[in-house]
Amino acid sequence: MTKKIDKYKVQAALVRSFFDAFSHGVIESQVEDRKEKTTPQSVKKLMLEHYEHIAPAFFDTMFFPLAAMNYKYEDIAALAREAQQRGDDMMALVRTACGDEAYYNAMVEEYKRNFSMLLAGKYLSNADHLEGYVRKAKEETEASVDSDRAIELTVRVVMFAYVRGLRQTGEDARFDRSAHLGQVHPLGEDARFDRSAHLRQVHPLRGATLFRLMLDAMNILLLDEAVDFADAEAADLASLFLKVCQTQHNFTVMTNEMDRTYSELMKE
What we know:
Layout: E1 4-6, H1 7-30, H2 40-49, H3 51-68, H4 73-85, H5 90-98, H6 101-119, H7 126-132, E2 144-146, H8 147-166, H9 181-184, H10 206-222, H11 237-245, H12 248-266
Antiparallel strand pairs: 1-2
């Protein structure tokens, strides 16, 4: 039996994961010097340069995950069609995806919090995120998301946002699968993740970034405090992921969704 995760916690994790992954994709696509990649100056400069790209990327990445928390999968396509027939703009569609005004307002607050930090050249730490994300009001009814679905949606957000950030190398640039995502997957386009190799056979830059993003995402989604990795073996990715995933079941759900999302991205 899978557990349930508070809907506000899931939504906040999705929004933070989008900004974390998208910004790192942008930075990695345009900054060659590793030491310069996460300096406040580089982060602020690139976020300002791509200011107008953030909202469209957010909508493209987040509409389905937000809707999937509030509607059945089979109803989401009809929901989008109806909204488009009404002439809804991007934010109106996102409002519909959030289900009700309280969740939409919470999403907006998380959006502003994360974006404002990036525009200041900073990233929210896992600890700061967990301490400050928007929670339900006392008068609200408790609402939750199945943990398997929450993990799957978070994985999709991380991978899609990261790829969309990498694509920001030019106005019409396409994602270079052979140079980027193809290197992240350890065994090639048609292979599945090799769990026996602990997810470590990856390109040293792209893979390291993706797995760090995923570790942080699972931490803020599945736990209530930031994980200390000081006592974990850094070379053993499986042990790091099990620490944030808590159970083998959650770890398997995560890696299975990484496989599915990878295959979907390869078809774009």
